[in-house]
Amino acid sequence: MRIEALFLIGVAAFFGLVGLIYWFWGYEQSGTAMLLGTTLLGLLPGTYYFWWSRRMKPRPEDRSDASIEDGAGVIGSFPDSSVWPFVLGMGLFLVVLSIVFGLWLLAPGFALVISAAVGVTVESRRGGTV
Amino acid sequence: MTDEPLRPALTGRRRRGALVLVGVALSLLLGGCQVPDFFGFRGATKQGHDEFLLYVGTFIAALVVGGFVGLLILFAVVRYRRRNEEMPKQFQYHIALELTYTVVPIIIVLILFGFTVITENRVDAVTPKPNLTVDVYAFQWGWEFDYPNHVVVRAETTTDPDPVGPEGLSGPQCSPAAWCLGPGLILPSGETTQINLRSRDVVHGFFVPEFNFSRYAQPGVLNQFDFTVIKPGVFRAQCTQFCGLYHSLMLFHVVAMPPTQFQTWLTAQEPTTSLNTKAAP
Amino acid sequence: MTTLVERPVVHAEHPEHHEGPTGLLKWMTSTDHKVIGMNYIVTSLVMFFFAGIMALVIRTQLTVPSGAVVSNQQFNELFTMHGSLMLYLFAGPFAFGGLANYIVPLQVGAPDMAFPRLNALSYWLYLSGSITMMLGFMVAGGAAAFGWVAYAPLSEATFSPGSGPDLWILALALTGFSAIFTGVNLVTTIFYLRAPGMTMFRMPIFTWNMLVTAILILIAFPVLTAAVVMLFCDRHFGTHIYTVQGGGVPVLYQNLFWFFGHPEVYILALPYFGIATEVIPVFSRKPLFGYKGMAFATMSIAALSTGVWAHHMFTTGTVLLPFFSLLSLLIAVPTGIKFFNWIGTMWRGSIVFGTPMLFSIGFLFAFLMGGLTGVMLASPPIDFVTHDTYFVVAHFHQVLFGSAVFAGFSGLYFWYPKFFGRMYNETLGKLHFWFLFIGFWVTFMPQYELGLKGMPRRVATYPAGLGWQNLNIVSTVGAFIIGFSFVFFLVNLWVSWRKPVPAGDNPWDAHALEWFATSPPVHHNFTKLPPVRSERPVWDFHHPDARTIEHGHNGHGQLVGTGAGPRQD
């Protein structure tokens, strides 16, 4: 976890530095704003990981001497298949197309988006496909 | 290893190759004006010539570096092709070597950066007292050149796709014809001309290839730069930044003439009020 | 059903039995990273062929002065869509949607991506974005015709009316979100689903590069989405963000776009560097030379690439020239490190010229040329000479074609046995390479000279008598050679489909974990895992007597890892 944290903090540190140089060299606003945003992008997850890395034992994947058995157990729960991403994707597709081809497409679009939202919630609560 | 006896010979040949390259580069640099142009224009303006020199220097550096790396790849590929099933040594790190090829490129790059800064400061230098100031407006799709005494050269290249010469104004004989498309920007040679570049609509690009220079014409931005054309001549030019339907027809050309002839031309023109006031963007 | 996946500790007697939907339903409902990755690969290759055909039309039009194959408007639509398809819908999604999706979970020893449903959604957004962009050709007024960069104010409603540009903007929004979701997914997968013992500095370089690419996506794509949404507001909701008339700033668009656009170039390049870095050691039978240097070089390229956006704007006269040229020039340093590491990997190796290796070597030469001209362009005065000319066109085609096509197809041939469990035809693969390689140089070398002679990019026609014709003819001939080379690729697919040659799990004697899985991998990937003691666990497993020597090549170095077999020397 520590290297992951340092990786993200490194992102923040580099762009913080570049942002400072850029601002005091050119006083240009848009670039400085974007560099500041990038700094925050690294800083927020980076400090969170760093905070955690100091409070947890190294995971098997953090230890160079770990054997496969050290990581035994459940990794996580993975769906075998699910139709809802497709429904959600097509819903968003229709919503976007409605801007060009007529707002009536919003009706089926939102219907799909809402049913996908309901569907995926129910699916993950039941722990299976619907 | 079977390759051991071969190595000294190869190293020697490589060293000789490097010497030849350095020799060629030196003779080119010392040759001064005899520098080959490496496909580029030598620069018809003082500024353009500076850029040309930087281009040539960088080109030679790129040739040396590229040749070195390319031959290295080629050598590795040919020399170390599989000949038997023997397992190669599984080496992975060589810190000193890795540091070398980190530090050497940094030095090369910093040298290049130094020359870049010197050249760009000379090219971008704007004199407070130019001999002539021309306001250039780019628009969809054509060019307008406003001279100090309200002489305006303006041509829409799309309605009149082939307006040879400086738009019906008595200019010099313009040839070759392919160089003279679009309106003509008439300048005195040997003197510093300042261009105030603006756009009336979208982003355009003011590009005179033989001046080795291009600059965007942008709405809401005034771009100022200087030219000192060395010798009289005709130089073709074109919009480079894509600007819509007739981008490819947005041609113009620059005519540099001796200062006296230029003054004669300028005073002979009828002062016209520009259709578009100068207050625009 | 959702499956609770356990770590494959011992050799399972029977691989996990999986019964899922088949056919079209499988394609629609699968959340398996392998199926989604393959969907991405196929879709992006279709886009690649569309864009390639557009390129051939463009080249035909430019063969002779005053070409009349297509009209000005059609030409402008064609080059806009050629660029947009190649960059947004092929080169990016092929790598970080297709190959990364398929390969990264396998390389880190994970059963799937961290968020499988989100992964599927990414694909559907990408597919709908692609369709949206292609729909531009169907609407009145035609597709977008303002270049793939869509500079304001040319892309404003005043200058580009119609729904084609709107569809283009919406397509970018859709694919932008798709890319962001994939980025999040990749970072999470790499941070949380690695196999025990696979520390960050034991990940294969391909995975490293995908991690860095994912971070770049998270940095860059939100800016693009914001920029095009603001453009959309300008077009339809009466805002004046990019128009001078309402007090807006047109240059802001260029700043926003290139803050996305330059990292995007590396989003397109880094995954392909990763592919070459996987292929070259395997075909040289050696570990990657300077592995850690390679990882840090990738990180520095990515970091620097985000600080150089305005080198696309040197000629605007509104940017800080020395800052951007210094950072741009510095990118040459980590790129050089990569080159020397690739050479060092081949050095004293035992190189086999399989098709993937040929493509990777082709990539090295193409990228060397593109990289050198890139260094030249990083110097503002030289950029003034060549900006927006064919010099730049040749430069970025050598970089992007060099990486996305040479390294991309290197990866495709390399992992083809893993994808389908069968081999492709080696002869056809080599013919594909040689035609592509020759066509590539014939197409793009003349374009450098054209640019130096002053031929601007994006021109539909050019006047006669400028001495550009011969070079253009050569370039067009090269383009058709490139087009022809892909016939061999398609025939190869056909042959291996009709007459399958079984490949086995590890035909290349390769290094990373994906070669430990079956070909194609079973559902949830692994039934067993080897111990991870270096960045090439599969090699260590098969060659316990040929482990990596840490330093030098004289045999006095230390062995990496613990519990190693007998030393070879």
In short:
The complex is a heterotrimer of chains A (130), B (281) and C (569). By secondary structure, chain A is mainly alpha-helical. Chain A has 2 domains: 2-63; 84-126.
The CATH superfamily of the largest domain in chain B turns out to be: Cupredoxins -  blue copper proteins
Give the helix proportion of chain B (percent range). 25-40%
Top-tier CATH class of chain C: Mainly Alpha
Give the distance, in angstroms, between the N- and C-terminal Cα atoms of chain B. 74 Å
Q: Please tell me the CATH architecture of chain C by its name.
A: Up-down Bundle
What would the CATH topology of chain C be?
Answer: Cytochrome C Oxidase, Chain A
Task: Compute the number of strand runs of chain B.
Answer: 11
Number of domains of chain B: 2
Instruction: Please tell me the overall pLDDT of chain B.
Output: 81
What does this structure look like?
The complex is a heterotrimer of chains A (130), B (281) and C (569). Chain A is mainly alpha-helical. Chain A has two domains: 2-63; 84-126. Chain A has helices at 2-26, 29-53, 84-101, 106-126, and one strand at residues 74-79. The mean pLDDT of chain A is 89. With 281 residues, chain B is α+β, with helices and mostly antiparallel strands. Helix content of chain B is 35%, strand content 23%. Chain B has a five-stranded mixed beta sheet with strand order 4-3-2-6-9. In chain B, a hairpin with a 2-residue loop joins β2 and β3. Chain B starts with 6 loop residues before the first helix and ends in a 13-residue tail after the last helix. With 569 residues, chain C is mostly helical. Chain C has one domain (30-539): Up-down Bundle (Cytochrome C Oxidase, Chain A). Chain C has 16 helices and two strands. Chain C has helices spanning 23-29, 33-62, 72-108, 116-135, 163-192, 205-236, 250-284, 291-305, 321-330, 332-346, 355-377, 380-386, 390-420, 426-452, 469-498, 537-542, and strands at residues 2-6, 549-551. β1 of chain B pairs parallel with β2 (549-551) of chain C, so a sheet runs across the interface.
